[in-house]
Design a protein that fits this description.
With 302 residues, the protein is of the alpha+beta class. The protein has two domains: 138 residues, no CATH class; 136 residues, Cytochrome Bc1 Complex, Chain D, domain 2. 36% of the residues lie in helices and 10% in strands. A five-stranded antiparallel sheet has the order 4-3-2-1-5, sandwiched between helices. The chain is globular, with a radius of gyration of 21 Å.
Length: 302
Amino acid sequence: MFGVALGGSMCITLLLPSFDIARVDATSISMDKQLTAGYETGFNLYDPLLLGQNKPLKVLLKVDPKSAQPMEPMYAYVYPKGAPFPGGVLHPDNLGAQAKELSLAVGKIGEGHNTEGAVFVIRTDDQKHSFIENVTITKGWEPDAVIKAAGDENISHAGAGKTLFVREGCWWCHTLLPEQTQDWQVFGSPPMLGDFNGESPTAFGSDRKAPDLLHVGSRNSSREWMMLHFFNPRLVQPHSIMPRFDYLWGAVDADGKTIDLAKWDEEFDAYRDGKRDQPPDVPMYAANSEARWLIDFVLNMK
């Protein structure tokens, strides 16, 4: 009897809600999440050491990559050759019935292959239904051409950054799940059903020791502040318990100069002890540094 009761409760708690979730159409938020992060974040055959490899790029396009003519700014998700497609493209059922139909019929997401690369965008039809479109098929936008048209200043490595968010254990202290309480006033509104279709993993977190980060990019969009905070949190919060992530800067800065962490620590200690008026400058990270990827991911959460 106990086994029957326990099995029944688990069925009600876990199994039955899954049927409702499966029938929900993916929102544009979930489409953005999965297209930004790619197939999967965490240990997998495409990136076994969690180095942020084989991840898409989220780019802000302001010119048409084929005609080079100005266009209304829009986000595109570039999948270089070999980068595995996200769950909603590989398994359209994850998008829900309406989004699946539009994404296949209009967006042509069933065509193309990751060995050739692809560019995806999020579209909306006349009834405001969101769907995914493979513009490499529908418009002939090739990944390399889109990256060139966007320029490095308009490229976000948020997909690789999510890998670092998981690898570095950020979710041990930070949640990505505001609650339906006073959290609304501080951290923003909680997510809705349909905001997670195709996302793997959700990285909700389980124990909040630090602020929720689901909408942190809306609360603080300063890349400079984020650089200070990640290099040494005590630069912006004197009593912060957050660990330093200065090692994500790598060996050299944006100018190719060697980063001397020992010297930086010595100067910071002098500043903390009142022997120096200003803290030492935080070096600008190199374009291909892990620090950039992680900051891109945090700023992308809005």
